[in-house]
Write a structure and sequence with these properties.
The protein has about 150 residues and is of the alpha+beta class. It has helices spanning about 5-30, 35-70, 100-105; strands at about 80, 85-90, 95, 115, 120-125, 130-135, 145-150. The chain folds into two domains: about 5-70; about 80-150, no CATH class. The two termini are about 60 Å apart. Strand 4 and strand 5 form a beta hairpin. The chain is built from three helices and seven strands, in the order ααβββαββββ. The structure holds zinc ion. Zinc ion binds next to helix 3.
Length: about 150
Protein backbone atom coordinates (compact mmCIF):
# COMPACT_ATOMS: atom_id res chain seq x y z
CA UNK A 1 0.00 0.00 0.00
CA UNK A 2 1.39 3.38 -0.94
CA UNK A 3 1.16 6.28 1.45
CA UNK A 4 -0.29 9.59 0.40
CA UNK A 5 2.09 12.53 0.72
CA UNK A 6 0.06 13.79 3.68
CA UNK A 7 0.27 10.43 5.47
CA UNK A 8 4.02 10.28 4.80
CA UNK A 9 4.44 13.78 6.27
CA UNK A 10 2.51 12.74 9.38
CA UNK A 11 4.76 9.72 9.81
CA UNK A 12 7.88 11.89 9.58
CA UNK A 13 6.50 14.35 12.16
CA UNK A 14 5.68 11.48 14.53
CA UNK A 15 9.17 10.01 14.11
CA UNK A 16 10.72 13.42 14.84
CA UNK A 17 8.56 13.77 17.98
CA UNK A 18 9.79 10.37 19.13
CA UNK A 19 13.44 11.38 18.68
CA UNK A 20 12.75 14.67 20.44
CA UNK A 21 11.24 12.84 23.44
CA UNK A 22 14.40 10.77 23.74
CA UNK A 23 16.50 13.95 23.58
CA UNK A 24 14.35 15.57 26.27
CA UNK A 25 14.83 12.56 28.55
CA UNK A 26 18.60 12.82 28.07
CA UNK A 27 18.52 16.59 28.69
CA UNK A 28 16.77 16.11 32.06
CA UNK A 29 20.11 15.25 33.65
CA UNK A 30 21.83 18.19 32.00
CA UNK A 31 22.50 21.55 33.63
CA UNK A 32 22.35 23.28 30.24
CA UNK A 33 19.15 25.34 30.52
CA UNK A 34 19.55 26.73 26.98
CA UNK A 35 19.49 23.19 25.63
CA UNK A 36 16.28 22.50 27.57
CA UNK A 37 14.70 25.70 26.18
CA UNK A 38 15.65 24.74 22.63
CA UNK A 39 14.18 21.29 23.04
CA UNK A 40 10.98 22.72 24.47
CA UNK A 41 10.67 25.24 21.60
CA UNK A 42 11.36 22.52 19.07
CA UNK A 43 8.66 20.38 20.62
CA UNK A 44 6.09 23.21 20.42
CA UNK A 45 7.00 23.77 16.76
CA UNK A 46 6.69 20.10 15.92
CA UNK A 47 3.29 19.88 17.62
CA UNK A 48 2.12 22.90 15.59
CA UNK A 49 3.47 21.26 12.45
CA UNK A 50 1.61 18.07 13.33
CA UNK A 51 -1.63 20.04 13.60
CA UNK A 52 -1.03 21.66 10.20
CA UNK A 53 -0.32 18.28 8.61
CA UNK A 54 -3.53 16.96 10.13
CA UNK A 55 -5.49 19.85 8.59
CA UNK A 56 -3.80 19.30 5.23
CA UNK A 57 -4.71 15.63 5.39
CA UNK A 58 -8.38 16.50 5.94
CA UNK A 59 -8.28 19.05 3.12
CA UNK A 60 -6.59 16.52 0.85
CA UNK A 61 -9.24 13.88 1.59
CA UNK A 62 -12.01 16.37 0.90
CA UNK A 63 -10.47 17.37 -2.44
CA UNK A 64 -10.08 13.72 -3.42
CA UNK A 65 -13.75 13.14 -2.69
CA UNK A 66 -14.72 16.17 -4.76
CA UNK A 67 -12.57 15.08 -7.71
CA UNK A 68 -14.01 11.57 -7.59
CA UNK A 69 -17.51 13.04 -7.64
CA UNK A 70 -16.70 15.33 -10.57
CA UNK A 71 -15.23 12.45 -12.52
CA UNK A 72 -18.19 10.19 -11.81
CA UNK A 73 -21.31 12.27 -11.55
CA UNK A 74 -24.35 10.24 -10.57
CA UNK A 75 -26.10 10.73 -13.86
CA UNK A 76 -23.82 10.95 -16.82
CA UNK A 77 -25.26 11.37 -20.29
CA UNK A 78 -25.01 8.14 -22.19
CA UNK A 79 -25.36 7.36 -25.85
CA UNK A 80 -28.22 5.18 -26.92
CA UNK A 81 -29.11 4.16 -30.41
CA UNK A 82 -32.64 4.89 -31.54
CA UNK A 83 -33.42 3.50 -34.94
CA UNK A 84 -30.60 4.61 -37.19
CA UNK A 85 -29.17 7.39 -35.00
CA UNK A 86 -27.45 7.91 -31.68
CA UNK A 87 -28.88 10.21 -29.04
CA UNK A 88 -27.75 11.12 -25.58
CA UNK A 89 -29.97 10.31 -22.65
CA UNK A 90 -29.64 11.18 -18.98
CA UNK A 91 -31.53 8.49 -17.13
CA UNK A 92 -35.07 8.71 -18.53
CA UNK A 93 -34.54 12.20 -19.85
CA UNK A 94 -33.80 12.86 -23.47
CA UNK A 95 -33.14 12.45 -26.24
CA UNK A 96 -30.45 15.11 -26.54
CA UNK A 97 -28.46 16.13 -29.59
CA UNK A 98 -25.26 14.10 -29.91
CA UNK A 99 -23.11 16.61 -31.87
CA UNK A 100 -24.08 19.49 -29.56
CA UNK A 101 -23.01 17.52 -26.48
CA UNK A 102 -19.85 16.14 -28.06
CA UNK A 103 -18.70 19.53 -29.34
CA UNK A 104 -20.03 22.00 -26.76
CA UNK A 105 -20.90 19.71 -23.85
CA UNK A 106 -24.38 21.17 -23.93
CA UNK A 107 -27.44 18.99 -23.52
CA UNK A 108 -29.83 20.22 -26.20
CA UNK A 109 -33.25 18.61 -26.19
CA UNK A 110 -34.43 17.50 -29.61
CA UNK A 111 -37.82 18.16 -31.12
CA UNK A 112 -40.55 15.53 -30.82
CA UNK A 113 -40.59 12.98 -33.60
CA UNK A 114 -41.60 14.44 -36.95
CA UNK A 115 -42.70 12.64 -40.00
CA UNK A 116 -41.11 13.93 -43.17
CA UNK A 117 -42.78 14.02 -46.59
CA UNK A 118 -41.07 10.74 -47.49
CA UNK A 119 -42.46 9.07 -44.38
CA UNK A 120 -39.14 8.99 -42.56
CA UNK A 121 -39.27 9.77 -38.85
CA UNK A 122 -36.82 12.36 -37.61
CA UNK A 123 -36.06 14.75 -34.80
CA UNK A 124 -34.47 18.15 -35.21
CA UNK A 125 -31.93 20.10 -33.20
CA UNK A 126 -32.76 23.78 -33.14
CA UNK A 127 -29.22 24.69 -32.09
CA UNK A 128 -27.02 22.97 -34.66
CA UNK A 129 -29.86 22.73 -37.20
CA UNK A 130 -29.30 19.03 -37.85
CA UNK A 131 -32.07 16.53 -38.45
CA UNK A 132 -31.72 12.99 -37.20
CA UNK A 133 -33.49 10.33 -39.17
CA UNK A 134 -34.56 7.42 -37.03
CA UNK A 135 -36.00 5.59 -39.98
CA UNK A 136 -34.93 5.53 -43.56
CA UNK A 137 -36.85 5.60 -46.70
CA UNK A 138 -34.63 3.73 -49.05
CA UNK A 139 -33.59 6.15 -51.70
CA UNK A 140 -30.29 6.73 -53.36
CA UNK A 141 -29.60 9.78 -51.18
CA UNK A 142 -30.23 8.17 -47.79
CA UNK A 143 -27.11 7.20 -45.92
CA UNK A 144 -26.61 4.85 -43.04
CA UNK A 145 -26.61 6.65 -39.69
CA UNK A 146 -28.29 9.28 -41.81
CA UNK A 147 -28.08 12.86 -40.87
CA UNK A 148 -29.15 15.60 -43.15
CA UNK A 149 -28.91 19.30 -42.87
CA UNK A 150 -32.14 20.89 -41.74
CA UNK A 151 -32.11 23.52 -44.44
ZN1 LIG B 1 -27.49 19.97 -31.98
Amino acid sequence: MTLTAAAAAMQIVNNALGVLNAARERAKGSKDSDLKDHISTLQDSLLELKEVVRRLTDENDELRRMIAQLENPKEKPEIRQVGAVNYYFVGDKGPYCQPCYDVKEKLVALSPQQKGPSGAIHRDCLVCQLSFYETHVETSVSRLGGRRSFS
